[in-house]
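Predict the 3D structure for this chain.
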Amino acid sequence: MFNPPNWLKDAKVTLALAWPIALAHGTNVMTAVLDTVMVGHTTANELAYLSLGRGLAYIAITICFGLLSGVMVKVSQANGAKNYPLAGQYWRSGLVLGLCVGTLGALLAFLAGSVILQTLSLSPALIKGAVAFLAVRVCGIPAMIGVYTCTGFLEGIKRPKQVMTVVLCMVGINMGINYLLIGGNLGFPALGATGAAVGTTVAEWCSLLIFTTLLRKGKRFALFELSPFKQSFQTLKARALDLLRFGLPFAFSNGLEMGAFATLGLMAGRLGALNSATHEVFWSINLVGFALIIGLSSATAVRVGNAIGAKETAIIPNLVGNSLLIACLAMGLVSLPLFLLPVGVMHIFTTSSVVVGMGMGLLPFMAFVLLGDTLQFTLMASLRACNDQWKASALQILGFWVVLVPLAYYLTFQQHWGLKGLMVGWMAGVFCVGISLGLRFLRLAAKLKALPTGFIDESFIATDPLPLEDSLIACQEP
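Done. Predicted structure below.
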């Protein structure tokens, strides 16, 4: 898959698309990381409330993300085929679908999360603080899914810089509210972790308003016909069902994946508030790495989708191989501070000397977790863009629930490794998924290389046969 003569040229194209996506997702992730940093400079207990409540909320969020994951793929394919109104249809349908499933997900997350917290062997203080955080945090889920739909559309048409601009506004709003409510500044009440949930929720709804206004009013998006009144109910329903069919395997796998990570968080909670706070620091470090990974994997998925739309499937294996090398090199550089400056890294997230002491010796494990995530996210995005959802998702689920969770539980509680057992299980699980997805892609790559130039196997197309209103529009790309 790796093609040395063309590597630098290919890397330049991928990085040109990836860096604004990574920065946009990075600024988006900053809201979660800032919550951890600002809450972490209050007390370890507040950080534990944040860890438990956010882990449960993110199960619903990632399921909804999975359901809407087809927006970027379908938009990129329609954009590659110069069918701009079709791309707009997927945005409108995705936005309506996202708000609906986001509302349902928020309700279920709070009800199920409250029951789970009450049934576990946690201290009453941990349960009360986590439920209070969760109650506020779920109110922002519908907006967060709507924002995800908008960013998927913009990334699919290769305009990630607009995403970055809006998300920067989101970070600013979140920081301001956090400053007022977490520590109780300027006469506002000190709400701790719950104050962080308020800041994130308000920032997400503001971002959704900005995104929808930008897309509907911006002249540069006129070709996509993004007015909500341009689409019939029948078309809206057809595109929404298409997105659901595409996204169901990812919703299933995302939910089980995030369920595995939430289970790790609950295991840390059983070890006590200090262990839970330390685990939250590790999760935030993972989020920082995730921003880079998702930028590179999204760029790869967009290029694969464009190649499929343009009937250039023969270039996909080399494209993905080159992207993997870029991603691993970039993640290696980002992980260096975890080895070289462990104390400094921990102090960024918390002032608790106990949490710093507990976490600094385990940071090297986090570096290997990030490398495993790099493999699995890049390969999963590539397989998704080739419409290989179900088998790839099955491999991911098996890696997390057959390897990650059982191994982490065994090492943590049966072998009494404590937090170290969680980290070893986490690391083993993500590498298992990454390697299995790599083997799956090698089989797909052999099939792609065997196709004649200009030919495309219908199994790689993630869209239904287009009706007459979706005929290709011969016009210049926006």
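Residues 458-478 have pLDDT under 50 and may be disordered.
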